[in-house]
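STRUCTURE REQUEST FORM
Protein name: gibberellin 2beta-dioxygenase
Source organism: Panicum miliaceum
Requested output: C-alpha cells
Priority: standard
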Amino acid sequence: MVVPSTTPVRQETAAAAASRGGGIPTVDMSAPGGRGALSRQVARACAEHGFFRAVSHGVPPGPAARLDAATAAFFALAPHDKQRAGPPSPLGYGCRSIGFNGDAGELEYLLLHASPAAVAHRARSIDTDDPSRFSTVVNDYVGAVRQLACEILDLLGEGLGLKDPRSFSKLITDTDSDSLLRINHYPPACTIHKLDHDDQCKMKSIVRTKNGNGLNSSAGARIGFGEHSDPQIISLLRANDVNGLQVLLPNSDGKEVWVQVPADPSAFFVNVGDLLQALTNGKLVSVRHRVIASACRPRLSTIYFAAPPLHTRISALPETITADSPCQYRPFTWAEYKKTMYSLRLSHSRLDLFQVGDDDNSNVDKGEQE
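Status: completed
Returned output:
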C-alpha cells in the first residue's frame, strides 16, 4: 500500500513536506490489497510524484550484493587502473565529468550497456583478472531488475486502463533494447578531491535550489550529480545506507522544493522517465532529482535505465488522448531524443523541445498516434 515516509527530510524542506501530508510514497509490491489495488497505487504514485519507493519487491539480495562487491572492488583500484575502462564515450569509466557539455559532479562511475555482449566487451577493462566473473555478476543483476521493471510497467498499464497493459514492458524486453546500467560512487566529502589529479577533477560545485519564484539560487554544499530528469522509460535505483538523493516536488502552495529521500538499501526507488511521460501524454510525470555529496561515508548507487530500441517511435498512446487532453508531444524516435539529450546540458527540460503547439495539434490525430 502507499504510505507516507515518516523519516525527517532536510531542514529547508521539512515544513513543505509536512504541509503536503507526507514525503516519498512507498509501494508494497507484495500486493497485500490485491493486484488491482496495487496497479492503481503504482499509477497514482507515478502521476502525482513521478517517483516511489518499492518495498517487498521480490528481487533476491544475492545479485545486488555480488554486484556491490564487484563494483566496490573496482572503485578501490588505483586511478590509472580504473582509467583503463574509460574515458566515457559515454559508456565506460568516468570521473567528475558528466556528458559532453560541461556538467560535473563529485563522483566516479561506470556506465554500461545492459546487453550481455556489451557487458562482456567492457568487462575486459574492468576486471582484467577474470572478465567473465564481472560479466556474470552484472548480467545476473540486470536480469533480476529488468523483471521488476517489467512488472512495474505492466502494473502501470493496468492502472491506466490501457487496452494492452504490456504496451510499456514490451518496449524494454525487445532484443535490441537500449537499456543501461549505471554505478555511481560518491567518495566521502572529506576525501572527495583525491579521486585523481586531472585538472577537470578540481572543479567546485554548488547546490542549486529552487526559491519561491521557481528560480535557481546557490547554497553551500557540493553537487554529487546535478538536477536532471531521466530520459528513458523508467529507472530503478538502489543505493547503500548513505543519504544524498533528493527529488523536486511541489508543496501545498504549488512551489517546488527539494525533498530528501531517506536511504533504504533494501528498497528500489522508481523514477518515471521522459519517454514514459511522452507515451502517457503527460499523465505520468518525469521527476527531476539530484544527489548531494556531503556525507562522511562513501555512497554507492546502481541505476537500471530501461529503454526501448533506438528505432522505436515514441508517441502518446491513443487511450491517453482526448478532446480535453490533446496530444502534448510530437512523435519522435528514441534515437532522435537521445541525440538531442547529448547536445544539451544535464538540467535541460528536454521534452519541451518536442511539445506541439495549438496549430500542430490539428495535424496530430488519434490515427497518427497508432
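Reviewer notes: Residues 114 and 180 are 5 Å apart (CA to CA). The domain at 26-199+221-353 is CATH 2.60.120.330 (Jelly Rolls).
Form closed.
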